[in-house]
Write a structure and sequence with these properties.
With 224 residues, the protein is mainly α. The protein is 74% helix and 0% strand. Helix 4 runs antiparallel to helix 6.
Length: 224
């Protein structure tokens, strides 16, 4: 996906093990970006953690920014695939309004997102910086909105806030992605401050998130 132009797989270094090596690179980068920030993580460290040589990283990815971009793209694809498996064939606006039906979709989705907590932390950290690679985060939200439109179209429903792409992107980022990223970045500290378990804090957050983000989504659908 992010391979340098003009190369073929036969050009890869001799120690390449194909997709397995690429996956190790992505997993190592995800962990290091979350722990040290994008700017603080070095390609040498990624190579060491992934147990590959540096040349192999540059075979698959033209830059460190390209690694971040692929991580974000994968998260969007995996999240939408997860949603597709959870949504029943008779999904409707009433399904979103019903707490029981909504939970059947939202709880597995929340579980998926919690497994990707490191990536959510990266989204928060990178969105707060002003360097050029942060546009990756904004492209991520734009891609999510496009996939969202495809999802609602499948069920003959209007996408939320369809009157304007700007409305859709801003709403998805500030009521959806940003609260989730902030939660995962600060979960441990809030758990300590409130002296409650992470599981209890997570339950409280989910209730708050559903009441805010879902309300915005439902209102946006009804106005479209």
């Amino acid at each position: 996906m992010n391979k340098p132009t003009g190369k073929t797989f036969s050009d890869a270094p001799a120690d390449s093990t194909g997709s397995e090596s690429k996956n190790r690179i992505l997993k190592a980068a995800e962990k290091l970006f979350a722990d040290k920030g994008f700017d603080g993580a070095r390609v040498d460290e990624i190579a060491r953690q992934a147990k590959v040589n540096k040349a192999l990283i540059y075979y698959y990815f033209k830059s460190k920014e390209a690694i971040l971009e692929e991580l974000m793209e994968l998260m969007v694809s995996e999240a939408m695939e997860a949603v597709d498996t959870m949504v029943p064939p008779d999904f409707s606006l009433e399904s979103l309004a019903s707490p029981e039906e909504r939970d059947k979709i939202m709880q597995p989705l929340f579980a998926f997102l919690r497994e990707r907590a490191d990536l959510m932390k990266i989204v928060l950290m990178e969105s707060l910086k002003s360097s050029s690679h942060n546009e990756t985060v904004f492209r991520l939200i734009s891609a999510m909105v496009e996939r969202q439109e495809e999802f609602f179209k499948r069920f003959n429903m209007p996408a939320p806030n369809k009157q304007s792409k700007a409305h859709q992107i801003v709403g998805e980022f500030f009521t959806g992605m940003l609260p989730l990223a902030g939660y995962f970045a600060l979960e441990e500290r809030w758990s300590r401050f409130l002296d409650i378990s992470r599981d209890h804090l997570w339950e409280i957050f989910q209730q708050s998130f559903i009441s805010s983000h879902l309300a915005y989504t439902l209102d946006g659908i009804q106005r479209s």
